[in-house]
Amino acid sequence: MSGFQLNAVPVLSRTTLDRAEDLRADEQALKEGWAQAKLLRMNRRGQVRIDNGTVVLEPALTLAPERTPEAVFLGVDDGTHLWAVRDNAIEGTLVDLRAYGTSLELDDFGLGLLATAIALLNWHDKAAYSAVDGTPTTSTNGGWSRTSETGHEDFPRTDPAVICLIHDGGDRVLLGRQNSWPEGLFSLLAGFVEAGESLERCVEREIKEEVGVDVTDIRYLGSQPWPFPRSLMLGFAAVADPEQPVAFHDGEIVEAYWFTRDEVRQALAAGAWGRKESDELVGTDRKLLLPGSISIARTIVESWAAAV
Fold first, then answer.
1. pLDDT at residue number 287
2. Which residue, 72, 108, 159, 308, has most beta carbons within 10 Å?
């Protein structure tokens, strides 16, 4: 069982968005494309308008007659330029990608559009000043960089984080629950990569810190962007001894248990944890709740559970 692989591409890695990198520095092309461009409005909570499973895009001209510095270029769709802007005044029925995930019934294009917009706008919100010289920065290259008054150019930051499925080499998997999560909701263990640290060493360290368990046979599975606010999740699997006592050293994980493959399969069959439109928790009467399908954790768990 230790050799299982992902049986599907993680949801946010399936994007079909044409990011059109070649246009970002072409100011004339961006200027000419504005008249026919489409605009995504997103508030600070990452919420947007969705209509019948489609992200609502407005004519860019509803923002301004010419492109504005706060708008960020996302790419193109059938020759039409796509932009996003932070707008805290948008009204109507708003939803966000993280809370509702694939229940939004967006296609791969729509999911990629939102993931890119969230990551870029989150970065711009906190990059008003240069980390090098402290001077104010302005948006450049269609929003894919910011340049300081002294000419230093900064680029969107992405923080690498590992996420690991720990199993016993057979039919048991170790899942943990953070203190802020609902009772019964368990997932894989994860953590950010530290400076000067390899991915494999990060897996070892994070798991030891969070549950006190030693792991071996660390294997890479796949990756997925996680723009909340700006991470890249790197998925792994590793083997541990169920007889080794679980210990919580850093306080992030409050409980962790070994579950059987049958228990995990039953939880998967019952559906993903999520939220209704009323924001009430779904599935809280179940013994084991698993992450929503938008996360790479779900894909990894499903792949392990399906292995025979």
1. 76
2. 72
